[in-house]
């Protein structure tokens, strides 16, 4: 009698091979983590840091990460104090914790020493496909920040959004505008449009030309609009409120998402000439490039006129769901 293995091999050619289907993004788990029991508070390593943290409010941030399944993930974070001065926290311990898809509780990642720029770089390992939140806690004062890790299957259907002047009605070109971004007014039906794409199972990417130190308020704005505040990618430029390389920065990142991460980017949104140029540089078709504001329709792009009400009703709501596997609907984060 043939063995079970032999029998399986014998009939393998008769068994249809089902196409792989990406898992839909899990915007529920990472948005609703359990209570974290963090590290025990210990004295700062230096008196200067004790003075710094006593005088200024924390303004920490983490860079969201997105990787293809099977790829080791890393996340960097920066710890500084004061919204204007951004005084770096040097030589102090920061503890990292991870929670997300398929996990029953927080996992301790380790503790890390900030460098001369107040930064740490954390290896998160190779994770199953899913969405994860990484929580960072400063040992000396227990202040913290969070970042998000997305581990995606190749081919996941994705929508990319610019934020300034695309989801908001202002383009934020002055420092005063940047520090007040959490109160920016959205275009009508912008949140409904974004959430409709999310509910259809698309991966959301928020690509901002803002410098990295505005991440905290940028993410807060998304949360205020009841939009899942990730994947959020900002410009690492640190020289001022108006980075000079916007088009290259955005074009390079869209190419990275498509070529290195393997996302299937089906639609991109923007408002500026630099958005049009960046998406074109990255190889996005004009028919999949939607532009709102004064440059709507420029260079053969798809125009969105005035606000998103008509676009939402006629083009987004009837659009097909993403080609992904979902066991449940994806409600708005609480």
Summarize the topology:
Blueprint: H1 4-11, E1 22-23, H2 47-55, E2 61-62, E3 65-68, E4 73-78, E5 80-81, E6 87-88, E7 93-100, E8 107-113, E9 119-125, E10 130-138, E11 144-152, E12 157-161, H3 175-179, H4 190-199, E13 203-211, H5 215-224, E14 232-235, H6 246-259, E15 264-270, H7 273-281, E16 289-292, E17 302-304, H8 309-316, E18 324-325
Parallel strand pairs: 1-18, 3-11, 12-13, 12-15, 13-14, 15-16, 16-17
Antiparallel strand pairs: 2-4, 4-9, 5-6, 7-8, 7-10, 10-11
Major sheet details? 6 strands, parallel
Total count of helical runs of at least 4 residues: 8
Beta-strand fraction estimate: 25-35%
Which stretches are low in confidence, meaning pLDDT under 50 for 5 or more residues running?
1-19, 328-334
SS-based structural class? alpha/beta
Q: Kindly state the percentage of residues in helix.
A: 10-25%
**What spatial order of strands do you see in the largest sheet?**
14-13-12-15-16-17
Outline type = globular
N/C terminus separation: 59 Å
Mean pLDDT equals 88
Instruction: Compute the CA-based radius of gyration.
Output: 22 Å
| SSE ordering | HEHEEEEEEEEEEEHHEHEHEHEEHE
User: How many runs of DSSP E, i.e. beta strands?
Assistant: 18
